[in-house]
Structure formats: C-alpha cells, structure tokens
Amino acid sequence: MVLTREYAKILLAMSAVVTCMSLSVSAKEAKKSPSGQDDNSLTEQEKKGLEDTKPETIVIEAPRLSSGDESTSMAQTLKVADSTSRLQTVTEVVQDAVGVQVRTLGGLGAYGSASIRGSTPNQVPVYLDGVLLNAGGFDTVNLGDLSLDLFQEINIYRSGAPSSLGTSGIGGAIQFKTRQDEQRQWQAAITTGSYNTYRLMLMGSWAVDFLNSKILSLVSASESDGDFLYFDDNGTEFNSDDDTTRPRQNNGFRSITGLMKIDSDAWAWHWTLLDNVLFKKQGIAGMDLMKTQFASLDTRRNALSLQGSLTDRDGWRLKPEFSYLYLHEDMDDSFGPHGELGMGRQHTSTTTHALAGGLLFQWEPTKEHFSTIRTDLRWERLAQRDLLKDSDEGRRDRIRAALAAQHQWTITERLSLLPSGRFELIQSKFDAIQTPGTTGVSTNTDKTDLLWQAAMGARWDLLSGLTMKINAGRYNRPPSLGELFGYRGTVIGNPDLRAETGFKTDLGLELTLGKFGPLEHLTLEVAGFATWSQDLIAFWQNSQHTVKAQNIDSARVLGAEINTSVIMGNYIKIWSNYTFMDTRNLSDTPFYNMRRLPGRPAHELYAKVEIFRDTPGWSASVWTDVSYSSGNFLDPSNLKDAGARTLVGAGMKIASPRHGLSLTVQVKNIMDTTTVINQEGYKQALEDYEGFPLPGRTVLVTLCWKSPLESKSS
Amino acid sequence: MIRIYFSCALWALTVFAVSCGSPYTGQHVSDISGSAAVVVTTDYRTGSLAVISLDHKEVDKDFSHIHPDTICRYSPITKKMYLVERMGADAIAVLNPGHGYIMESEFSVGAGTNAQDIAVVSRDRAYVARYSSSTMTVINPDTGDLLDEIDLSPWADEDGLAEPGWGVEHDGKIFVAIQRLKDFQPTDYSAILVMNSMSGKTIKEVRLAAKDPMSKLRYAPAEKAFVIGEVGVMGALDGGVELLYTDDLSTSGLMITEQELGGDIIDVVILSESKGFAIVSKTRDDFSASTSVVSFDPGTGKRLSVLAHSDEFDHSFLELDPSGRQLWVAQRKRTQPGIRIFDTFSDEEITKSPIDVGLPPFMICFANTGD
Question: Which residues of chain B lie closer than 8 angstroms to A336, CB-CB?
Fold first, then answer.
C-alpha cells in the first residue's frame, strides 16, 4: 500500500513536470517562431501581404494536422447551429442519434441522461469544449442543464473517443462544441408555446483588432411551467375506475445561461478563452403520486477554459488546455414533517470544483504517420453540506494524472491502423466528518487507483465511398467520489471499490454517394457492436437506512445499428436510424441474471423527412419525424414493462434570408400520446422512469432574427 | 371425475366472473389457493408476490408485480389478504385466497398519505394507519369507501404528526403503534394507542418503555399480550422487547433488551412463555450492519441461541407458521434470497436452501383459510 502511494506521488509529480516542461518548450517555440508562421496571429492586412510570398508547401501542409483522430471511430456529428430558430432541448436532439438512449424525468428543463449502446449514463464522459463535465458528485451529466443555443455541433463517439479529447468511457463520449461564428453577426430569437413556455436568446459576435480577436457573446433565458397533463392511475395500477388525467405540478423551471468566447491570436498561438455560466431554478415534481408544491432544486454551473494552439509547418501541433469547472446544486425538500418527496426532510448543497490542465502534442512526421500524445492533470473536490443540520459532510478530493498516446499509421492509401492507450493514476482522499443521518464518525481514507485503457482501430477504404471500420478496446470508469466515500447520508462509501471495466468492439461499413440519379447525396452506415462490462457498481442495502456501492454487476450488450441520410433533388432530406440491442445483466444476482438492462429498448427507430424550398427571396421547409421504441423495461428485474411507444412530431419554418427573419412552428408529440399499454395489457403513463410522466402534445412558435450580414454569408 | 370437472369449471367460471365484473382486467391468478404463505418481495424498485403452499412448499413466484413498498396483512374475519401499498402508491389491494389470490379490489386511501397498515374489524369496517396524515381513516375494506376519520393530532410530536405505524384489531379493540418521529428519529416517547374498534374512541394511550415500535405488531396467545419490538435510535442498542397485556392494558417493561439480544431489533415473535425469536441488526463503525436470527427466553429475558447470522443486512422479517412449529425467515441476501424455515423446537433449519420466491422477500403473511 505504501509502495503504491509512493508510485502515485512519483507519477503525479512526473505528470506535473511533463506538463510544465511541455509548456516551457511550447513557449520557447512560440518565441522562436517567425511572425508569419501562424496565420492566425496576423492582421488581415498582414495576411494579405504575406499570401503572395508564402511558399506553396505551406498551403499543402496546413491540413495535414487537421485529419486523423476520428478515422476509425463510429461517430456521429449533429450540426445544431440552426437550432436557435426553434426551441429544442439537448436531450431531444441527442436521443434521435443512432445508438443513443436518453431517459428524462419529463418536460422541458427536466433531468435527462444519455447512455450509448446500452452503457450506463455515468459511463459516458461528456465534454463542453474539452471541459469534462463528469466531476465530483456529478458523475452523470444532466443533459437538461445544457441549452442547445450554446452549441455549434455535438459529436457522439460510439466507439472510443479520440485521445485528443481526453478520457473515453465504456459508453464512448459526447462532446458539445460551442458556437463559432466567423462573421460579425447579431441574432435574436423568441419562443413561446405550451405550458407557458418562453425563451429569449440573444447572440452577438464581432471582431476586434486587438490580437485579431473574435468575440462571441450569447445569453439564453427560458422558463416553463411544465404543467402538462399526465395519466394518473391514483396509485391503483390494477383499478382503471379511478384513473384520471391531471396537470403536473411544481414541475416548472427558470434558467439563464450565458456564453462568452474570445478567439485571439497572440505570440504565434491561437487562443480560445471560454466561459459558460448557468443559473437554474426548478421545482421538483417528484413521483406522480407524491405531488409536491415547494420542493426545489437550484443549479449553478461555471465552465471556464483557456485553450491554446500552435501549429508548426514541420508537422506538429501543441495545444495546452486549462479549465475550471464549478458545479453547485441546492436541493430543498424541507417543507412538511416528512418532506414532500418521501425521503424525509432534506436541504443539502452539493458543490464540485474541478481544476484541470492538459497538453496535447500532435505530430505528423510523414504522410503515413500521425501521432497524438496527451497528458492531463486534474483536481476535483466534492463538498456537501446538510443545511438543515448545518453540518458538513467532509471534503472528498481527487487528483487524476493521465498520459495518453495514439498513433495513426496509414499503411496503404486504403488501409490505416489506429492503436491507442491511456494510463491514469487517481488518488482519492476523504477528510472525515460526521455523516448526517447516521451515527459514528468515519475515518480519513486515501485510495489510489491505476487504470489503463487500450484500443485498436482499423479503417479500410474498400471502394470509393465505401469504408469499413473496426474497433476493439478496453475502457473503464473509476468509481465516483460519492460511491467511494458516501453521499447525502444514505449512501455509505466503499473505498474498496474497483473501477468498472468494459471490453467493446464494433464493425461497421460506411457508404457515401454523391449525385446518383434523383439522389443528391446519400450516406449509409451499418454497424454491429458488442460490449462486455464487469465490476459494474450498484447500490445494495447494507443497513436499515443506508445503501452501499458495490462491484456486483456485469453486463453484455450485443447490437446493430443502421443510420442513413438522403438528399433528393434539392428539396427533400430524409434521416433515419434504427438500433437493435440485446442487453443482458450477467451478474450473480439471481433475480437480475439474464434480464434486460432497464431503459435500453430492444428496438429504436427514428425517421425524419423534411421538404424544403429555397429561393433568393424566401425559403420554407416542413418536416415530420417519428420515433418508435419497444422491448424496454423500467426496472432491472424486468417485471415492469415500459410499453412500446410511437411519438410523432412535425414543424414548419418560413424564412426571409434577405431580412434575416424566420418563423418556426413546432409540434412535439403531435398525437398527444401520454399513455402506453404494457405487455400485461394495462394502461400506464408514458415515462422513462417509473413515476415520472412525460409530456403530451407541445406546440412552440419561434421568431428568429439574424443580422443580414450573417444571412448573406450563409 | 365428474365432480373434478365440475369443480374446475366452477372455479374457472368464478375467476372469469370476478375478472369481467370489475375493472381489474388481465389479473394474475396463482396456481395455489387456500391456506398458504403470501410473500411480499421487493428490490425497492419493483415489488412482486409469491405464494407458497404450506403442505408441499410449492411456490408460485412473481405471479403479480406490486408496488415496491408494500406490506401484507391477512384478516381471519374477512378471510382476505390485504396488501397495503405504502409510500408512492398509498393504496390497498384486496386478494382472495380462495380464488388463487386474485385481486378483487384496489383503492386509494389518499395520495401522499403514506399508508402503513390496515386493521380489519368487520366485513365493512377497517382502520388504516397513515404515516403522513394527522388522521387515521376508517373505511369499508371491500370498497375503500370512507366511513370516518380519527384525529390523532393529540398524540402528535412537534412535527404535527403522530406517525401511526402498525395497527391490529383484537377483542373489540384497535391497537395502533404511535411511533412519534421527527425526521425519522425518535422523539420524547412512543406509545400504543388503544381504541374502541366500533366507535374509534380512545380507550388508553399506553406509553412504552423504549422508543420507536418499528417491528410488526403481533398478538402472542401464550402471553395474552401484544409483542412490541422497540428499536429506539438505530445503532444505539437502547431498545428492547415489551409486552402489552390485553386484559388490563398494562405493560411488562423491557422483558429483554437490545443489549442482551445483541443488536437493534428488526422483528420479533413470541412462541411460548419460554421461547421467542428475533432478528437483530448490529451496526459497525463503517455504518454497515450485520443481521442475526436469535432465539430468546421471554421468561428470563436471556438470549438462547443464534439460528442464522449474516455479515450483511440480509434478514428482514420473521413469522411463525399457523401451527407454531415452524419459524419462517425472510432472507434478502443478494446472491441467495428466499425463505428459510426453522424448527421452533430444535432451532434447526428445515430448508436445505432458501425457497426461491423471485425478488428478495420482505414480508410473509399466512392465509389460514381453514381448508
């Protein structure tokens, strides 16, 4: 144990030294670089003057380093920059992606989490412009706290994530990329609709001469009462006589989120400074029968990052990254003798701080080789207070040091290999203080884990437009600070927890066709995948009032997915995807063994058809989409079937690009589906989690204005 | 043979009629009818029911899913099994043991009231204790129709609620455990409230020697008393077992303490004046707990032996079978959940391995229909 700790300290120190040395080298390189080496550091006039004198090779070399990382990963990029012209949530967009399963507690602003290819949600690292959001007591990222207005695109890595991004989970990774506007523009959008839903979004971006900077500023405020009608069985599942429909109460929210992003060129480097803040206040509606009035949740987030990039003509790139993440939740259920949620009176605040520094080095010595090395150092702290008892639960700290490497070897023009590996040293520490709700005092605890990941990918261009990809790798998820050292009084820590590990593999074919008959463009992706996970962490009762996290589960997921997009004749777009999964719990718990994993449907189908017409004076589009899922259970013992569901949406948009105006009308769940029939023939509420109904028909209207300069450029 | 065919046809017709004549569509019917043990099982996410025949120990498991926080109570008066679906459902389901435990009715007793137990007084009168309500409701146990409400606020603690838990009828009286908790921790005292079963009027408030009567309230014929397991503060070994004599409503004081039993009392039954059984839980420094099934002598107040022990929190409930010769124990061990049966005379285990009832068992109720 002592030896392990010593190793931990040495490795941590080495990681810090490597980071500092790399930064020092990069700074020297920056000083040595001639003023014209990086175009981004120049003013427009200087650039224009230099363009004539640039050797041709520079132009050829520039894209060499932009290739690479994702060449074998089964990934999907969702372009969402146009989402400002309508009100969509991140959960809605992500759940329509192939291979992604999203579960929400219901309605706009509600908690939502994503799993990929049958993983658990906390096995999916979520990044916001490179800032890892899974931190401290928030090991599962609540997608309901992310506004789609902030983002340009969403990258979903169903295989392993590239080493340049950071850690990859057993479930892959999701990266949210914030908006990036090249042109000076102003944008405003206002939305109103069902359940007193309002949203106002303002965005401006402009360039300033100082350091050739571009500044983007965005504010988005939204609120909704969330009082949709839901099916209420009055607690009597088998008695349909007292079934009724009633409005959801205490389910509203108000939030405001802001984004400030500055891109500058300084000392041959390109720098991006980003700050994202969120203030959100929402009611906690609780389970359907436990109607609440006052239970509330306040959420605050600040994600601050500084990323630099220095690209050298000799084929290397250096990218230092620094970030600070603040996550805070204040959960108040102190009304009434027992609280409203039935768990007793609670008023807790949970705060996480995460400070991280990383350095990415990419090198492309020849056309055939492309290497990536990344080192990271990250500190996290989870602090929790019981505000009713005015007591502190103690600090839980964690230091993570990681070294990752990836190499892309292009063996022939058609075949390339991508081996990668990552080592991570994690030191977790608990400063003991009496835990509320229990008796006794826990002890100070240290824990050191050394984790490793390894993966191999291959890409083979079989024919022009037809590519085969194959990936296999071992991934892991370290136990969260809450799982290790306890959480909110009822979760007792278990410092002996091991990291969850998963081996996953996939094989896919991608077909891309250009103009072919009536088709303007077609992409088709077919893939099969398998994941075996073990040492999965689950909670089990260990005393009258407490549960304890234990490595007791294992699982297997087999699946296949098809993803297509078609553009026909410049007026029809069709997207569709289908995911099949056979998920099985392989634990030695007899009443779960070989049962399906809850929340992972066997069949998921999504299709969207959009008909559009663009003219110089105006443009219009109408669309409809349908999502279907079946073979899903709400519980791990598979006694509660979620029922098959089909949800249909539709919308239309009319725009005048000349004036920068657009009007969008959306109807979600147009059939007003609020109930499903389960396998036993009973009617039950439409829900992802038992007791948390989902909304029915929702109509939203958005008026959006973009400054004409931007609209001309677009 | 004709008689058998006729019986089968009649049974099928009855089940069909019951099913069609009510809104309870698609009901599950157990293969086992009559005297049997109904086992409520749960993993706290889903609940289920199992029925075990008393003679051959045949099991019909997972024959119907139920609310994950449910207790059962058999009424010899109505010969019905009542499922009290507690926090999050707050409803009562009525099962008919005579017809494959088919659900005959299900009704709400007030959303958000956290129903705890039902004490059936007659075919048309029952009392329902509700944790999060200041009143105890009186209903028709067949239909759920509200008949009356008993105000319990005089026995409330500072949070305004009396937290009535277990309740049972005996000899024209209703006995209700008044836990009196604040933030689920005991306050100054706990009591048993004794009421006239027909009028609902309070006869006596019996204050207990220790606090928080958490275990099921049972009548022990051998002692002519109710057996009350008082846990006090969990982990503090400040409780014990007390008897409430039904003839004069006096109490015994703590006949055996948690110190002597070796842990917090989770459940307790008394077989005779010289033998009782209890489940005790011992909390360790890391807040985890072990559980043991122990026997004790009510006469001397001494622990006798340990029938079963687990380093985990695995034992949740025990019950004597109608003959008193067997002790049934609900074992929630994750890898081997089920019902273990012990000989009450020798303390030896009768079952070679736990009887598989599907999900981990939470509670056992015997339906003694006399057939």
Answer: 132
A 552-581 residues with CB below 8 A of B? 552
Domain assignment present for residue A76? The answer is yes
Rounded distance between C-alpha atoms, residue A557 and residue A579, angstroms? 12
Q: What is the pLDDT of residue A42?
A: 35
Residue of B nearest to A493 (CA): B286
Over residues A628-679, the pLDDT tens digits come to: 999 899 999 999 888 899 999 999 999 998 888 999 999 999 999 999 988 8
CB contact at 8 A, B180 and B155: yes
Burial per residue of A539-553, b for 16 or more beta-carbon CB atoms within 10 angstroms, e otherwise = bbbbbbbbbbbbbbb
Structure ipTM: 0.89
Q: Test B287 with A287 for CB contact under 8 angstroms.
A: no
Instruction: Count CA atoms closer than 13 A to A256's CA, side-chain side.
Output: 3
A289 touches chain B (CB under 8 A): yes
Contact status, residue A191 vs residue A697, Cβ threshold 8 Å: no
Q: Using the predicted structure, report yes or no on whether residue A617 has a pLDDT greater than 60.
A: yes
CATH code of residue A384: 2.40.170
Name the nearest CA neighbour of B193 among B136, B255, B138, B141.
Answer: B136
Mention every residue, 6+ apart, whose C-beta is less than 8 A from residue A450.
A4, A7, A8, A423, A424, A425, A426
Residue of higher predicted confidence among B261 and B183 = B261
B67-207 is a CATH 2.120.10.30 domain: yes
What is the number of domains present in chain A? 1
Domain spans in chain B, listed from the N-terminal domain onward: 67-207
Least Cα separation, residue A581 to chain B (angstroms): 23
CB contact under 8 A, B184 and A545: yes
Q: Does A507 touch chain B (CB under 8 A)?
A: no
For A346, the enclosing helix (H) or strand (E) is: strand A346-366
- Taking the C-alpha atoms of residue B84 and residue B73, their distance in angstroms, rounded to an integer, is 8
* Within a domain: A348: yes
One DSSP character per residue, B99-143 reads GTTEEEEEEES-TTS-EEEEEEEETTEEEEEETT-SEEEEE-TTT
Which chain A positions have a beta carbon within 8 Å of B87's beta carbon? 290, 342
Any B CB within 8 A of A412 CB: no
Q: Which residues of A touch B288 (CB under 8 A)?
A: 492, 542-543, 546, 548
Confidence check: pLDDT of A24 > 70: no
Residue A490 at interface with chain B, using a CB cutoff of 8 Å = no
Using the predicted structure, report yes or no on whether residue B168 has a pLDDT greater than 90. Answer: yes
A683 close to B (CB below 8 A) = no
Residues B164, B153: Cα–Cα separation, whole Å: 11
User: Which member of B27, B283, B337 has the closest CB to residue A238?
Assistant: B27
**Residue A571 exposure: Cα atoms within 13 Å on the Cβ side:** 6
Structure tokens at A399: 């230091």
- Tallying the residues shown for chain A, one arrives at 714
Specify if A185 maps to a domain.
Answer: yes
- CA–CA dist B180, B165 (Å, integer): 10
Look up the domain containing A103 and give its range: 2-466+477-496+534-545+669-679
Instruction: Give contacts of A 442-461 with B, CB under 8 A.
Output: 442
Out of B91, B183, B236, name the one closest to residue A439 (CB).
Answer: B236
Handedness of CA B238, B240, B245, B246 (dihedral sign): positive
Contact call for residues A266 and A121 (beta carbons, < 8 A): no
B155: pLDDT strictly greater than 50: yes
Query: Please, which residues have CB within 8 angstroms of residue A495's CB and are 6 or more apart in sequence?
Result: A428, A430, A445, A447, A484, A485
The secondary structure of A445-471, three-state, reads: EEEEEEEEEEEEEEEEEEECCEEEEEE
What band does B166 get if pLDDT is binned at 50, 70 and 90? very high
In a domain, A83, yes or no: yes
